[in-house]
Amino acid sequence: MIIRPRRLRRTSTIRRMVKETCIRVDDLIFPIFVKHGKGEREPIPSMVGHYQLSVDELVKEAEDVWSLGIPAIILFGLPGVKDKLGSEAYARDGIVQKAVAAVKERVPELVVLTDVCLCQYTDHGHCGIIKDGQVDNDATLEILSRVAISHAEAGADFVAPSDMMDGRVRAIRETLDRDGFKDTGILSYAVKYASSFYGPFREAADSKPQFGDRKSYQMDPANAREAIKEALLDIEEGADIIMVKPALPYLDIIHQVRARIHLPVAAYNVSGEYAMVKAAEQRGWIDGEEVMMEMLLSIKRAGADLILTYFAKDVARILT
Ligand code: PBG
Q1: What's the pLDDT at 112?
Q2: Domain limits at 40?
Q3: What is the mean pLDDT of the chain?
């Protein structure tokens, strides 16, 4: 007698019954780039199907996202001016602050997350304040807390610090609580690697560092134990959701973090992961839709509860 696992693969109905993992629309968070202006819908060359949107266009996009059943968006802002401190990042009338308020007014139930970071807003393109040629951790915390408060004031449901400074989750949590934003959550980019997969994003967000790189604050791709340290620290500091980023080259990390913590785990299927699929699809080298579903499934199977992905609308169209 031979054991026949193929019996469970014989028909599509049987396969449906024994499927272990599935992607739900509820798992998806859609990233959107927003800029000043009116009626603007500027295509991002390296991210096919994505745009830098002005606030009026963003509101339409948010309605579209909500009507597809996607529960959440995360906003990235393109400021009007960049300076040393990234001051538009915490301006009351900054681009993200205006965008959040507009979306919340039109689609109040859509969960709005905001990326809290300085790299798009600083003239040097680093995620923190520069002192003596170095990114100064503690001086940055104060600015990040101001950014978080300004997003909370505008109505953000979650702020998502992505800068990788030490102690930023605690600093932001304490400031939010002190200023009366007890219900504003923190999705922490807790485990964020210094990755080359962010290339298209940096073009889309105009956030390339003007000198050096991000290796003194983002994590070394070689390290896994350190991921657990970062995740546990951010939980201690008050994070509500822990994120691993990028996703695909770090499935082992997602798996290990999932096994070790009891908060929801998010994974960021980043711009480079998206661009590779789109580029190969355009050349007819892969079936883009099938590759997309297989990639996202692998991220869920690794243990992610939530996935931030530029594919969210495409997936939602397939699932609904
Ligand atoms: C800001 C930020 C980055 C991404 C999200 N937030 C870029 C970076 O750290 O350089 C990357 C997202 C993507 O590639 O899709 N710090």
Answers
A1: 98
A2: 24-319
A3: 97
